[in-house]
Design a protein that fits this description.
By secondary structure, the protein is an alpha/beta fold. The chain has 2 domains: 2-159 and 451-544, P-loop containing nucleotide triphosphate hydrolases (Rossmann fold), CATH 3.40.50.300; 210-378, no CATH class. It is built from 15 helices and 15 strands.
Amino acid sequence: MLIEIRSKAFKAKDKIRPPITFKAGLNVILGGEDGENSIGKSSALLAIDFVFGGSTYIRSDAVKQVGHHTIFFCFKFEDTLYYFARDTMYPETIHICNNNYKLTGDSYTQSEFVDWLNIQYNLDFPELKFRNTVGRFFRIYGKPNCDEKQPLKIRPQEGMKEAIDTLVKLFDRYKFIEGYKQNLDIQTEEQKAFREARKYNFVPSLVDGKKKYDTNVVRIESLKLAREQLSQATDDYFSEEQIERENLRRDLKDEAYQLNRKIEQNKSKISLLKINLERGLYPTEADFESLVNYFPNVNLRRLHEVEGFHQKLAIILNDEFVKERELLESQNIELEEALSEVNLRMRELGVSTQLSPEFLDQYSKITNEIKDLEAQNDSYLKLNELNDKKRRAKQALDQNIESILLEIETQINNKMEDFNDELYDEKRKAPVLKFKAYNSYSFYTPDDDGTGTNYKGMVLFDLAALSLTKLPAIAHDSLIFKNIEDESIDGIMRIYADSKKQIFISFDRASSYNTNISTIVYDNTRLELGTDGHELYGMNWKSKENNNSSE
């Protein structure tokens, strides 16, 4: 849990404040009796959120007015104290300190630090992110998560599915969904892969419906009959196997012809290369003498210069010729091995049946059409199978999700009802969380849509989540209480005081409430703020802030 925070920026009457210490249970940041704004109540809560890995404090008016500063803080887990420092100018780095808050040289990134908190608080559930979870229960002025009608959302633009998903993870129920979700993802990918393969003709085009499938079945039977009749029309009866062997023999002959042709082409190229290598590519001295006989005025010196260049070029070309010859010779070895394999396969087929090319062509045409239609129908059946698997996977996922959401909904509603009963002498309707689907929910109090009732419902929801899960802490700013009737606040304070987990609140005008409320508030006050130098930072910039500020 959080033990303390301190900073040179925290002042009272121009003196640095002593460390602000915290304990298990309720921790109150107390304002004045006049309910003054701009004294630092919300800033203190944002500073607490900051040491829990948040970022809203960096953009707050406090940092704008005071300037960048370092906040030192200490957490305690299993009797071990951990000391850190985080600067608003470089918030992505959390420095590890010794017990005197001297930097050790080691540090975490912000991401590493919140992962560390996740582990320390035993919140390392599948897919659960610490800030995305804890941050939505720190309801402080300046953070966008104070919508009393949609308490699951961490920000207005967040989709309901994401909000519900986080709650499922917080209740450690995602692990029961994950397997079903992974199976659906697998089936979806298989279906997608099959459709893509069909798109690029890696699998046959499938028929467009059951009617076409049935038409293909009729056509296949007709073609098989025609093929049988064609076979019986020959002088000698040949089995389908014999005909297939003959077709294969013909294909092998074609393949052997192409291999032989390629081998002979390579041999011709090799012969030419040998000639070039043996005779050279440039003229001899005798060639020059013959040239003078025909052209007495020819510039022999210039010819020799040009020829020198040609000789140098020839050396380079000779190297290329050698490489080309070696490549062709290597290719021929492979081609001859392939030819030998083809010849062996032809010998294994036995004596030719001497079937006419016309018969074989007709037989092959019919057979190929049969194969094409059968492949089309197989594709149709395969896609139907994939669609069915995906449908069953989604159905299993939906049923599992529905069961889990109902379980969570029941737990939260029962706990909120228990808390609600503690607020009043007579029974009143409690807030209700209702999941409509994995991407839709409603939060309301039956027959009461008043502002105070809605804010009370949000508080009870947070307390229920705190009680039912491993959520380590919640924070409620004073703006929340200003909308709730005194009777409800009395009960809420009692529930706060009974908590074993840390609850951080800001509160003012404590003496204006009944004795029970004021006693709880004063007994749990960790920091008291006021005016005239007793603000969190020892100064007031109220005149520069919006009059509607909740500070």
